[in-house]
Design a protein that fits this description.
It is elongated and about 95 Å long. By secondary structure, the chain is an alpha+beta fold. The termini are far apart. It has 3 domains: 221 residues, HUPs (Rossmann fold), CATH 3.40.50.620; 81 residues, Uridine Diphospho-n-acetylenolpyruvylglucosamine Reductase, domain 3, CATH 3.30.465; 121 residues, no CATH class. The strands form 5 sheets. It has a 6-stranded mixed sheet. It has a 5-stranded antiparallel sheet with strand order 7-8-11-10-9. It is built from 16 helices and 22 strands. Helix 6 packs across helix 10, helix 10 packs across helix 12 and helix 12 crosses helix 13.
Length: 453
């Protein structure tokens, strides 16, 4: 049997570096072998005040209640402060459109962070180990990733620490056996949607272990190297952001700032910018980053790219502007004889002819509204043989997505009846003997410039 002081040496080294004077820590304990080893290990360390926290995801019925009772009873026997929490994971899946795994993780970490703050804990400790890290690296590799993804699970993120990341599952199993640490069998390890991870664990990792019994430790070292290199590139990218100028609704970036540096630095600078402006990072993909870089590398001005979280990148002569797209009203009612302004364009409807106005058939009792375009909009342009989607018509006209989004659509009921680019739909052409109204679209910005001259 290994002696206590030499067991799990990498974890002890991590604690000495991160907590040289000890401290108050919150251990996330599911009841499985890994987390029970973590709790036992931390109770053996001098200078630490340990609290155990268990979260019930309400996914496995009586088994989940069994796990909570097991951890609670263990803590009571060993005089360990214990806190439990619970959350309706499936309700969050329905509410926010997340996978079960994402919803469970979100609820769990929210509970852990709130509990740590209430208890005054210096850090939250989780039991992720070297095999977990290897699985994550392989999954990221299969999905396609850069060095950040291949760096695997970070040992420290905010106040969340993972002292076992250089310890293998086999070493933890030996530790549990040596110290007679009880645990519950939980194959999912609180990872409900883990089919791919379980396939790696049962089929791929055993083969890698046959090829090299120390593959997990070697991958952990590789992850550490890649993390350092990725951090260095991130730091270089942050240094570029001093050249960014603030705009009222975004930022202006010199194109040369992104094109005269190595691609790995430019890509990170773009991602940092997009995340900074939007306040989010999760749905920003490599495709979005490359689309922005293509704008910077190209030589055509006034091109635009639509991005997540309401962002838009627009190429000017020597700069890129990354801004938030304006949010237009969903619907504005308009009466015959009235006018509304949408996206800088005034829409006026009259029962009398006006200069620049287009005649339009108005069915009796029909309601009129002005809205943005909708994905289901189709119309028949005058002289056309059939109906076409408004989106396709705008693309054929050379309109950018931002220009299209600013266009007001006059609707009769729910139908796309008229707009300032294609005029009145042939479906609403004036009919003899039927009510005719007159529609005029006036670009207020163009009109203001004309008056200034």
């Amino acid at each position: 049997m290994a002696t206590t002081m030499t067991e799990l040496r990498p974890a002890r080294a991590f604690l000495r570096e991160k907590f040289p004077r000890g401290g108050s820590v919150l251990c996330a304990v599911s009841g499985g072998m890994d987390s029970m080893c973590l709790l036992h290990f931390m109770l053996e360390q001098p200078g630490f005040r340990v609290t155990a926290a268990h979260f019930n995801h309400q996914l496995r019925g009586a088994e989940a209640d069994r796990d909570e009772s097991f951890v609670r009873d263990y803590c009571a026997r060993h005089h360990v402060p214990f806190v439990s929490g619970a959350g309706d994971t499936r309700a969050m899946v329905e509410k926010e459109g997340l996978s079960v795994e994402e919803a469970a993780r979100k609820l769990r970490y929210a509970f852990l962070k709130e509990t740590a703050a209430e208890r005054g804990c210096d850090a939250i400790l989780t039991a992720h180990h070297a095999d977990d890290n290897a699985e994550t690296m392989l999954l990221n590799l299969l999905r396609g990733t850069g060095s950040a993804g291949l760096a695997g699970i970070p040992p420290v993120r905010g106040n969340i620490c993972r002292p076992f990341l250089r310890v293998t599952r086999l070493e933890l199993a030996e530790y549990a056996q040596n110290h007679h640490i009880p645990h519950v069998e939980d194959e999912t390890n609180d990872d409900p949607d883990a089919a791919a991870r379980n396939a790696l664990r049962s089929s791929v990792l055993p083969v890698l272990r046959q090829l090299n019994p120390r593959f997990a430790e070697n991958m952990a070292r590789t992850a550490s190297i890649l993390r350092e290199e990725s951090d260095a590139l991130e730091s270089m990218a942050r240094g570029l952001l001093d050249q960014v100028k603030e705009l009222p609704d975004g930022v202006s970036v010199p194109c040369l700032m992104l094109t005269e540096v190595p691609a790995a630095v430019g890509e990170r600078a773009v991602l940092q910018l997009l995340a900074q402006i939007s306040g989010h990072r999760r749905d920003l993909t490599a495709a979005h980053v490359l689309a922005v870089l293509d704008l910077a590398r190209g030589d055509r001005a006034d091109l635009e790219v639509t991005l997540p979280y309401g962002l838009m990148a627009r190429r000017k002569k020597y700069t890129l502007e990354i801004t938030r797209r304006p949010v237009w009203p969903a619907s504005m009612p308009i009466e015959v004889g009235g006018a509304v302004t949408f996206g800088g364009t005034e829409v006026m409807v009259s029962d009398a002819a006006m200069a620049g106005a287009l005649p339009m058939h108005l069915p009796e009792g029909a309601s009129l509204t002005v809205t943005p375009w909708r994905p289901g909009d189709w119309l028949r342009t005058p002289g056309s043989r059939g109906r076409r989607s408004f989106k396709r018509l705008c693309a054929d006209q050379g309109l950018t997505p931002a220009e299209r989004d600013r266009l007001p659509v006059l609707r009769v009921g729910e139908a796309h009846a008229a707009d300032p680019v294609f005029g009145v739909s042939a479906d609403f052409a004036p009919c003899s003997g039927e009510q005719t109204v007159f529609v005029r679209f006036t670009n207020k910005q163009t009109e203001e410039k004309r008056h200034e001259k």
